[in-house]
Amino acid sequence: MENKDILDEQASMDTPQPDNLATESGDSDDAVTATSEETSESTSAEGFIAETNKIGSELAELKDKYLRLYADFENFRRRTAKEKLDLISNANEGVLKALIPVVDDFERAMQSIENTNDVAALKEGVSLIYTKLFKTLESKGLKPMTSKGEPFNADLHESVTQFPAPSDDLKGKVIDEIEKGYYLNDKVIRFAKVIVGS
Predict the structure, then answer these.
(1) CATH for 168
(2) Looking at residue 151, what DSSP letter applies?
(3) Where are the beta strands (DSSP E) in the chain?
(4) What is the pTM of this model?
(5) Which of 71, 114, 161, 194 has the fewest CB atoms within 10 Å, i.e. the most exposed one?
């Protein structure tokens, strides 16, 4: 019997045990699983890095566009401010150029006043200069306001005083005009100073 027990022990050692097989096969599955996890982790890490690089390049491109746009806007703002200052400082240039010939006429009239005694000729010369001056101002958009006999309008007239109206139809209307009002291209630039009937 003893030999039989020894033989059984040797046979049991030679034959693979189910526990050993399960352990060995489990280790190989874990190895395969670990390899696929490492591969997917490295793939996702590479994808993350690529996505980060892509976002970084887009951010740099947008930042560059923003800086260029900001610089363009600053240049535009400076240029328009300079143009506005130039426009304000030279706004009267056209009017003044148009008035220079009238000033020349006045200078010639002043010289002729000293040398002549003909009052009628002086009146005619001053009248011609006034007409020229008025036509020049009209060409620049200046228009006189007609106020006498019109109903009082606070948007156009400045009432200096009130007098009793000579007739009932002149009540609340302009009786007399002390200072003429003017429009510049349909905008009131000077209100007419008037006397209103009460």
Answers:
(1) 2.30.22.10
(2) B
(3) 142-144, 157-163, 174-179, 182-184, 187-190, 192-197
(4) 0.55
(5) 114
The answer to whether residue 123 sits within a structural domain is no
pLDDT tens digits, 142-188: 999 988 888 888 888 998 988 888 888 888 888 889 999 999 988 99
Which has more pLDDT, 95 or 35? 95
Task: Return the structure tokens found at 196.
Answer: 């209103």
Dihedral sign of CA atoms 30, 32, 35, 41 in order: negative
Residues 6+ apart with CB under 8 A from 126: 109
> Is 164 inside a domain boundary?
yes
Helices (H) and strands (E) in the chain, counts: 4, 6
Structural domain for 146, as ranges = 142-197
Tell me, yes or no, whether 37 lies in a domain.
no
